[in-house]
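Hello,

I think I submitted the pyridoxal-5'-phosphate job twice by accident. Can you confirm which output corresponds to this input? Input:
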Amino acid sequence: MWDSHWLTNNGELHQKLENQLVEYLDVSYLTLFTNGHLALENVIAAFDLSGEAITTPYTFISTTNAIVRNGLTPVFCDINPVDYTIDVNQIESLITEETSAIVPVHVYGNICDVEKIEQLALKHELKVIYDAAHAFGVRLNGHGIGNYGDASMFSFHATKVFNTIEGGAISYRDEALKEDLESLKNFGLSAEDAIFIGNNAKMNEFQAAMGICNLRHVNEDIAKRKAVAERYDEHLNGINGIILNQSQSSVESNYSYYPVVFDGYNKTRDQVFSELKEYDINARKYFYPLISDYSVYRGKHNSNDTPVAKHIADHVLTLPMYASLSIDDVDKICAVIKK
Ligand SMILES: *Cc1c(COP(=O)(O)O)cnc(C)c1O
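Support: Only one job matched these inputs. Its output is below.
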């Protein structure tokens, strides 16, 4: 990086990472951003949408903020209790004259029903923009998950399966989107003109270098995560009141999170959370609270309108999950939960 004297603005490493990710994610086109959130905000801006966007409250606040900061009204659809993604059977009842997009979220490495969503989008002429922050490297029938919908946002935040410290990308199928995204993330500039009122969301060379290094290890990391997930399964399967995530057929997951729903267990979710903490084990209430329960959204939205999402948010914990987590530690974590 020092040798090239090129620190940001589509540098050599940026170009290299972009090409490597097109290949790794098995997508047609990809544009890098300084983080996942700004990637999502900018792609919504590129589609120049207005009115309402159907999404779920069972996500990270970034999804909803990106919708609202583009002047759109989020309409919350409930999730299904099986894989925690948008309940596709409820989407149609929420479509109005105002609806311009669906912004579904892939959750924990589980994917949405992309086929059904595509049918609905075609029928009602809606854009589909996936929040794929949890879905790096996930494949459906052998194809990269970033091929579905009009665009997908990936996050490369330090906590994700693949990271560039901070970072993100948009994948898409329509080449025409490339110029608009390049412009939007660079103040709206294009040659000597400005074609958008853009912001600054460019990935720098340090981030790209980090990504190139980490990408070499990502397959190995996902394999280690899988072994961790399988060990958790062995310990926790079949226990009354503990509901585990079921793997989806035809999907190669990335094992980005290990969610457990404590429903009817002899301790509540909050008790398990606190007792794990006493052993320095940091589980996460994720996602909790629901987006509709944050004070900035409460009043405009009612979390009781999405009872499944509310129930899961009140009962879920994601257990520690990372590539270097030892099987020994998984055994210890499970021993505390069972005790
Ligand atoms: C991490 C995350 C984001 C935001 O990505 P950043 O890279 O942190 O900006 C958005 N949505 C979901 C579901 C996430 O998990």
